[in-house]
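Methods: example folding runs. The two proteins below were folded one after another, and each record is reproduced exactly as written to the output file, sequence line first and structure-token line second.
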Amino acid sequence: MPEHDPPRFASRTLWNIAWRTLLRHPWQSVLMVLGIALGVAVVVAVDLANASASRAFDYSTDAVAGQATHQIVGGPQGVDEALYVELRRQGLAGHNGSAAAPIVADYAYSAQLGGRPFQLLGVDPFAEAPFRNYLWAGGEVSIAGLSDTLTQPGAVLISADTAAYYGLAPTDRLELEIGGYDREAFVAGLLDPADDLSRRALDGLLLADIATAQELTGRLGRLDRIDLILPEDGGPVAAEIRAHLPAGAQLIPVDSRAGTIEEMTAAFRLNLLALSLLALVVGLFLIYNTMTFSVVQRRPLFGTLRSLGVTRREIFAMVVSEALVVGSLGAALGLGLGILMGKGAVQAVSQTISDLYFVVTVQEIGIPISSLLKGALLGIVATVLAAAPPAWEAASVPARAALSRSSLEGKARRAVMSVAVVSLVMAVLGVGLLAIPTRSLVISFGGTMAIVVAFAALTPLATTLFMRIATRPLGSIWGALGRMAPRNVVTSISRTAVAVAALMVAVSVTIGVSLMIGSFRTTVVAWLDQILQGDVYVSAPGRISTQATTPLDPAVLPLVEDWPGVEGVDLLRTATVESPGGPVTVFATYNPNFGERPFLSNDLSPEAIWAAMEEGAVVVSEPYANLAGLPRRGGTVTLYTAHGLQEFPVAGIYYDYVTSGGIVSMSLDTYRRLWDDETLTAVGLRLAPGVDADAVAREMGDALAPVQRLFVRPNQALRDEALVIFDRTFAITGALQLLATVVAFIGVLSALLSLLLEKQREVGILRAVGLTVRQLWGLVLLETGLMGAVAGLLAMPTGFALSLILIYIINRRSFGWTLQMQVDPAPFLTALAVAVIAALLAGIYPARKMGKMLAAEGLRYE
């Protein structure tokens, strides 16, 4: 029958055949669905976590910035409230279509609010209408006790949802901790906006009158900023406002400031997404392997159909339609699993961002439809793409060849060298992409994926060579079974190689990430040894775990300086200052030993570095130098100070792992002179020989508690806390690795079940000639063990190559950090053990099924 004129009943008949195939092989279908479901679930979970963290930042920004287009910001101490009054008097704010509102903001903690950070926002209710609509949601006032916020000290407003969750009601007292001080407040009323967006924005927000916020935060007479609504380009009003600003204040667009902070987390979230795609990639191996077997299993049927006139296009459509059904079911199941897993991932990602970048106060985020659509499309499209090669194989084989079961395996064995050539091409492509001098992580991950595919394409050749080498020694040990096992693996290379490749990819990523994390941890430990030169450190609870940003009470320094056993004091002021390129973190220190820390680029001695800093030079961290594009020598940094724009020569670039946003360090005297700020945020104490640091920290903490609640930690405790944050940062990475390995395990199990069905006649013959059940178990487990061994051995060079890429390319381009490579044999040995054990476990069920098979039943197969 001609290709262009198929029988009318063909489409419906072929669909019935495809549907019955899925129903008659439930285990095979379930494994395919489960494999793709896990892959989709991981992608959806991470995408939900990333989207939630991003939206949490947006909600937090909306809650605080509202509709503001510009902000007037000062130095680390904010701006004088008199500036707001002056702008009003001059008619430069709140007139001619513009609007202005003063803001005081900080973070507050309370056991009554679950101990989580809440944004304390001080506003002027009479200036708020254009900016934040919490008081006027739905067009009417929705707050009970609004007058108390203006007349009663300590009055705050919280959302009705927050109050219901924590069992609070109007007039209830709140015990708050702000900047290490205990403050008394009470719930004056409840915010209950009508729209969902405002409800979410209010999650994690305490609203107060600006005078109340100044009292609670100890910033009497000061504002954090002044919000403005101006034309898009600022217009003439902006020029007039700039002309009236004092030297320490700047007018900046809101979008640029928020965008700078958002960009800091982009690399972190992209890395997580790339790692999550690994599970889906491994799932593709599983789908390909299972669909290939499905095609091989039905080759006689395809040959018969082709002989009856069914076209190649219809055969191709039938197989792809099966994959479409499997992909749809797997994607649907994966979406449900992804939502469940996403809840835990949201917490992990939010905690990491709060540790390293900015405090995430919004906890409950809705599920974006885009994340679900993205996950579903990835699952379905990936399944169809993975099934396309087997479908093409089914459609392209002539009818006579289709009736020969050995033709595909012979073709697969002949293609081993061709696939090895593809491996070489992919390796060259990957190296070429990675060699491109760009900060684009998309190109970097594309090169990394090409390298992984290159190693995966080597699997058939590596498996064949390994089995040939293993045949003689295994034959010496286990006789005929020892010779049969490796030959059986090679005989079914079209499926065993794919299963081995899936397991190899998952295990190699485990090696690569483990080496990267181990190298990172070793580097951080060595770095901490070099920078933590004091014995005891004093700081206040801050917004970000890795940085001391909360001011110390002025009474703290005299107390710690005169403490018995204290020989020296190192002072530190951490502040965020403005620059033409956006906000910059500044470390101002009085520490003559600062030059002893490890430097990436510097020609000066440690003493000369400190001398240069005292004369007004700065040293910058490696991430800052990379972000700012500074040369290794001779660069400058420009910052806004209380006395105007100031340019600082760069005396050196040092290694630092506090933040990927970068740090500019200077002497405390230089900072105080240019910013008129005497505040300290941390103090390092050097004790006399023989003084117990733990005892000093414990006694000092108790003595300082009446002044300010502080963290007083000995050197070792600070190191331990830094490593706890480090380990917490990579916790989600470990979970993603585990899930990818689980998907690979399912892939191996699928391949073995496929082999079980195909080898029924062979098993029947072996049982008929006297092979015992125990020997059959040994044969199956030996085959699976060999597959696991090949996967583990090939994963070693693959994992090592991945670790080099992660450490020297991805990590440096993502975060700007240079890590010291540490090669530990433990990840390699662990990965080999995991691969072998996973393969052996996957072989138990097929071995059990084969052991129960009757010889006559097997001989009747085919």
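Second run, written to the same file directly after the first:
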Amino acid sequence: MSLFKQLLLLITAIFLVIFAVNFLTSVYNTRTYLEIESEIHAQDTATSLGVSLSPYIGDETDDILLTLINAVFDRGYYREIKLVNMEGKVLVQKTNPPTFEYVPDWFVRLLPMKTATAETELSSGWNLAGTLYVTINPGYGYLKLYEQASLALRYSVAAFVIFTLLLYIMLRFVLNPLKKIEQLARDIADGRFGQISDLPWTTEIRSVAIAMNFMSEKIEQMIANLNAKLDKVSEQLQLDDLTGLKNKGSFQGDMKNLFMSHAEGYVYFIRIDNLGEFAKTHGSEKVDNFLKDFAGLLSDISKSSSYELKAYRFYGAEFALIAKSLPEADVEMFGSQLSSALAELGQKYDRPDIAHIGIVPFDISSSIPGLLEAASESYEQARLIGANAYSLHKRDERVRDVGKWLALLERVIREKQFTVTYVGQVHGLRKDAGIVMEEAFAEVHDDGETVSIGAFVSIAEKYSQIVNFDKGIADTVIDHVVRKKVPHAVSINLSMASVRNTDFRAWLADLINTNHEIADKIVLSVTAYSAAKHLQQFEEFIGFVHETGARVMLKRYETEFISLDLVKKLKPDFLRLAREVTSEISQNRSKRLFVETMKEVSDLLDVKVIAESVVSDNDFDVLREIGIYGASR
């Protein structure tokens, strides 16, 4: 029951008791007053009438006795007037009904009044001649009491209704700010930090409203500071400390995103030759300056080129350039330009042969390990060609053509020729949490050969078959959860095409509603990169999923794609950090600071943070110490 109803009922009950007590007291006081007045009136009448009758009582047959008694009795205030002689003989007796017809019987029974009777002795000369009895008619008393009680009741009810109405209005006015305070508290819990502008006039509630405003402002400032810290740390994690170029983790993340967006292009893998020997003959400062100049050269080329280029430093002497959408006709021309630029830099350091370049094409069917392996082979080929030379790796002839891909897609989807394994078990990092989630991972085979799932999904997206594939996976996983009575959550990876598809949403809602008892075990997972490109549809999807009782996870999360301000707005249930963020966290202060800050913000936003594929025991212990929700090994 709300505070408003409690106060209204309590104070109304108090009013009711007060009015009832006042009413009853008034009625009882009136009755007592009327009874006393009746006794006094009866005695006065008996005395005065007795004096009037005394001169005539000597003659009991004198008509004046009856005349005088009738004159008094006819006023109607008396129930009985009786004159009795000394022998007990009734000389005169007049009687009236005890009540009036318009006084209800129940009222008479409920409030009985004592009938007042007075008597006086009459004398004739010096001798007693008789006794006069005067009994007041209680009907007049009941009438006056009834009229007084009715009037008091009307006034009491009217006053009660008026005071109750005033109480209702006053409580509404006084307690209405509590609704604003409640709404502000809910807004804060949802990550919206407003203010109560119209402060209530009630001192105590006003103080609470001011405190809520202060808390809202402080939490908003705290999250803003944490966001700024996260952005700064996130940026540091993506950059090489010495050269300022993006690091290998950023390269891998960018390549994954390019694969997902079906982009094509080339990777220029560049390795400085004999950097170890150069370091032996020159000091560390000279080596650092050399690496900075080398990185500056790549950065300048990236910025000045008409192509879409990004430069990276992996570690040590290894660098890379991603050339997205580079025309095939310009690949070798750009390689030649890059080779000439390296030769010019080598002259500055008296090193005519400074580095070699391996060029590898990538497309929808590529994978990062395959790219790096091919790049290393091309680099070795370039070393055989000449100083600062490049070598272009030819596309793999074994790559399936479009017809074969489409045939494979049709067969896999129609016949459900895929297997689902449950991997990446997430261990809860809180005490005795056990396994809290595992990931459903699809595998596709073609003639006994495992097909790259990333390439398969990309091809399925390109040819508008991904929705049917995602339906098959989701149906298989939910059936598994129901049959096996899986006690923990299971994440299902979805493509953004499925997320945006209204038919898929309707199908998914029916599937989950049919199996509503396990709805909270289903976690629908989307990459942060994909969600960032379609934020409005993803936000709608989260709301839709929450209505079904299932949950949503943003995987491979980095603030580069979706800021925590957007997370606050989107309200996913889980954030799974990109693998590069937590790798070697036990040895990297910046990564630890980033995850600690993420944990603080996620606690405020009520979002659970998960780390994926933690290899090192030391890293796992650090994550447990930080206190995030869970981590997979």
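Comment on the second run: The first strand starts at residue 78 and ends at 85.
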